[in-house]
Write a structure and sequence with these properties.
18 helices; alpha/beta; 30% helix; seven-stranded mixed beta sheet
Length: 706
């Protein structure tokens, strides 16, 4: 019975659906369909109906609901079960397998289950029974009550030698249930309930299993794909800081996280829907007042505990990143350590984020740094751990609450960091990680009025859209976008050192770095010598298993990224030389050196892969002109033995982070950000907290002393 209390718990009942072409307005597309009467019945019974997509639902969604209804639609694929197809229906085998997996998973969980029409066929398969789709012979005098939504019964006579006769033996009648509006019981009536369960294993759809945390669980591994490796410790992809009762709706969209070195599935993560994002933002907004009220010393202590928890889990975090992102183990350890160091650095900030006393006439004037509120952070896939910390550490230190969206492809370390935050004592709602699509989670950060700032690292195109969207609410943004950085080598440089360092500046993280020095500019009179020195350095790069400490470069993140990178190296590309890369599974690409023209896409566009271009220049002015001939301005390097020249060129190059005789771009104690279309605002350094606060000015009038 439904309760009149609006706060009473309403059981969440999931309903399967099916695709059907539909039109609305100018749109024509496949719509996810479920009969409205089923939805109304759930509501009338006091439940909350939740629509599941016809394909792609991960069974873990069943942990968030209280019951499952398997609905009707086209008959289950008949040829797999020795039956003929119904003349009025088109089988959907992928949907059949999808719903069978869900049905079995519901039974494994002891979840209440109701099967309707074709859903009962699915139930029969899930129970390993023999599927009987059609009645060979119908008794035309059967007792039947036609009418929409009315369940009737019909008797039938078995045909000797038929499949149904072999199952029922000598029985001459058996019940048949359906709810179609008909004037009479026609031949070919579909049986929609299990007539008899056969002993032993039946022909139902089977699923492979994989090992996870020492137990067998159903797998979403596709046929022919290698079995997944065991998980380390990221959990099951559930949303940290979020209990089941907090979830009002579930999209059931999932994402297979792939190991880019092996192309194996290592985890399937549930992606949040709009309702979940709104819930997370509401929790963050609710936690804000108490978090900003935590005494500065106590907030500092909690951040130090968070840093200590990261340090204790450093090796596990590194191994997760090797699996998830293909980073070399040495890089991954540095990245986990960077999270620890950034947290430690900003743990000192709550007690040192000083305001000012400004001398004025007639009173006392003081300023305060007030936190903004809820901050939404969108993290890319190339450096999941450090870039996340560059956002959440100063935001938390300033007294804000954080909702963080990791990239779909690399969510595992972010999920683990959320667990570590809870273990360290960070209160619920203060730091949440919500895996999801940018079009859902990221877009909601932009449009939700309770999110007071968006921090985004990613492509310039998406950054522009976020900036435009935030303008509607005059919402604060920090953007760290693309780069096409120049590595300028002058003739007075130590050429051996510059050539030895160049591969690291271009190919670190397989070139998937917005700071990659992907344009090498070499003074013309030493160009040939530099190329002679560069070739052995490039060919010495060891590309392979990122878990091997001897490996210096791992794979690209995905097959799509490999296709993108390969597009910059066509058959007629001006390849100077290449290194080696593994063959077989994995998204490998060899380190490649090109000598293109100045207008070549490989020289002008961000590649985000292990491809570097080398061009000559004549003098300082020419080098600066070529370096600045780009929409980007994030980073760069200058190689020279002259301090005067280093300073002149550094002042002339339009980039936010420059290094002399080095490729170092990022230190947590110094500001980081770009010029032009490489971004807006600065991260890291002592002033980062200012971008997560508002300055409040307070004037206190004092009486004149007489």
């Amino acid at each position: 019975m439904a309760s009149n209390d609006s706060k009473a718990y309403r059981p969440r009942i999931a309903l399967t659906s099916y695709y059907q072409e539909a039109s609305w307005g100018v749109w024509n597309a496949a719509a996810a369909i479920v009969p409205g009467t089923y939805v109304e019945a759930v509501v009338a019974a006091g439940g909350t109906p939740i629509l599941l997509p016809p394909l792609g639902t991960d069974e873990t969604v069943l942990d968030l609901v209280d019951g499952l209804i398997v609905v009707g639609g086209p008959d289950v694929e008949p040829t797999r079960y020795g039956a003929s197809a119904h003349p009025r229906t088109v089988p959907q085998p992928l949907r059949d397998e999808h719903d069978t997996i869900l049905t079995r998973a519901a039974m494994e969980r002891g979840l209440p289950l109701f099967a309707i029409c074709r859903g009962a066929q699915i139930l029969n398969v899930a129970l390993n029974g023999s599927l009987i789709q059609h009645i060979p012979d119908i008794n035309p005098t059967a007792n039947y009550q036609p009418g929409p939504g009315v369940f009737g019964t019909a008797a039938f006579i078995t045909t000797p030698g038929s499949l149904i006769q072999s199952l029922l033996g000598d029985a001459s009648e058996a019940p048949c249930y359906h709810h179609q509006a008909m004037d009479a019981v026609p031949p070919g009536l579909r049986v929609t309930a299990a007539l008899r369960r056969r002993d032993g294993p039946g022909p139902g759809v089977r699923r492979p299993v994989r090992l996870a945390a020492g137990r067998a669980v159903p797998s979403r591994t596709k046929p022919g794909r290698p079995a997944a490796v065991p998980r380390l410790r990221p959990g099951r992809g559930e949303l940290p800081c979020q209990s089941k009762r907090d979830v009002h709706a579930m999209t059931a969209t999932t994402f297979d996280v792939i190991n880019p070195s092996t192309e194996e599935i290592i985890e399937t993560v549930s992606l949040a829907g709009l309702a979940e994002v709104d819930d997370a933002i509401a929790r963050a907004a609710g936690a804000y007042e108490s978090w900003r009220g935590v005494a500065p010393a106590d907030r500092s202590l909690l951040l130090r505990r968070f840093a200590a928890a990261v340090d204790a889990d450093l090796e596990n975090l590194a191994r997760l990143e090797v699996l998830n992102a293909g980073h070399t183990i040495g890089n991954a350890r540095w990245e986990a350590g960077n999270v620890r160091d950034v947290l430690n650095y900003y743990s000192a900030a709550p007690e040192r984020h000083f305001g000012k006393q400004i001398p004025v006439a007639g009173g006392v004037n003081i300023t305060f740094h007030e936190p903004l509120g809820v901050v939404g952070i969108i993290v890319p896939w190339n450096f999941p751990m450090p870039i996340a910390a560059w956002g959440f550490a100063p935001a938390l230190a300033a007294g804000n609450t954080v909702v963080l969206k990791p990239a779909e492809m690399t969510p595992l370390t972010a999920l683990r960091l959320a667990e570590l935050a809870r273990e360290a004592g960070i209160p619920d709602g203060v730091f949440q990680v919500i895996p999801g699509k940018g079009s859902v989670v990221g877009e909601r950060f932009v449009t939700h009025p309770a999110v007071r700032k968006v921090v985004f690292t990613g492509s310039t195109g998406v950054g522009k859209k976020i900036m435009a969207g935030c303008a509607d609410q005059v919402k604060r943004v920090t953007l760290e976008l693309g780069g096409k950085s120049a590595n300028i080598v002058f003739d007075d440089a130590d050429l051996e050192m510059a050539a030895a360092a160049a591969p690291g500046g271009a190919f670190d993280n397989a070139g998937q770095d917005c700071c990659a020095r992907s344009r090498i500019l070499v003074q013309r009179n030493v160009y040939d010598r530099f190329m002679e020195l560069l070739e052995p350095a490039v060919k010495a790069i060891t590309v392979g298993d990122p878990s091997d400490a001897a490996t210096t470069m791992g794979p690209l993140i995905s097959a799509q990224q490999r296709r993108t990178v390969a597009g910059f190296v066509p058959d007629n590309a001006a390849i100077a030389f290449q290194g080696q890369a593994p063959t077989g599974p994995g998204f490998w690409f060899p380190p490649t050196v090109l000598t293109p023209g100045l207008d070549s896409p490989s020289f002008t566009e961000e590649i985000f892969g292990p491809v570097v271009t080398v061009v000559p220049f004549t003098d300082e002015a020419d080098a600066i002109r070529i370096a600045n001939n780009t929409d980007y301005g994030l980073s760069g390097s200058i190689w020279t033995s002259s301090v005067d020249r280093a300073l002149r060129v550094a002042r002339g190059v339009e980039a936010g982070n420059l290094s002399v005789n080095s490729h170092s771009s990022v230190r947590y104690s110094t500001p980081f950000g770009g010029f032009k279309q490489s971004g807006l605002g600065r991260e890291l350094g002592p002033d980062a907290l200012d971008s997560f606060t508002e300055t409040k000015n307070v004037f206190i009038s004092t009486p004149s002393l007489t």
